[in-house]
Amino acid sequence: MRMHQLITKEPTWVREYEAMLEALKQAGGDPSAITSGKFATLVVSANKVLAKSELPGIRFEAEEIPTGIKARIVVESGVKIPQPVHLCFGMLAQEGIQEIIVRYEIGEDAQVAFLAHCTFPNAKQLKHLMEAEIYIGASARMSSTESP
Fold first, then answer.
1. Torsions phi, psi of 28, nearest 5?
2. Between the CA of residue 105 and those of 19, 60, 134, what are the distances in Å?
3. pLDDT in tens, 21-33
4. Between the CA of residue 38 and those of 34, 54, 62, 129, what are the distances in Å?
């Protein structure tokens, strides 16, 4: 079984990653969906990609921008991903802005479902902004849901 890939071993990021998983758990989500390696996952805190797990036929490209990330999510033509792809976006800070600018490219005859977990456990004056471009090939199917 594949385990997800922590992007860095720097202790601050590891603590931030663990705090994001704990916030997901407190909100009623299942952190094992993120950590098991059974699902394709992308974990972003503020403007840092903390972890990702890619499966055959799906890949994540992401770059940090000052207030968030710019990402490209590609599902190759003909690929059918049976389990939801987990996208975990959040911030631990009380104040700030998180912008997620994402381009989804779903190839011809592909099938994928995204499950977004957005967690902001300490938010007081925080904005979470998302902008998406979605390209879906012929006979492809894509769905997106938000959940704890």
1. 100, 5
2. 30, 11, 6
3. 888 888 888 888 8
4. 8, 10, 21, 28
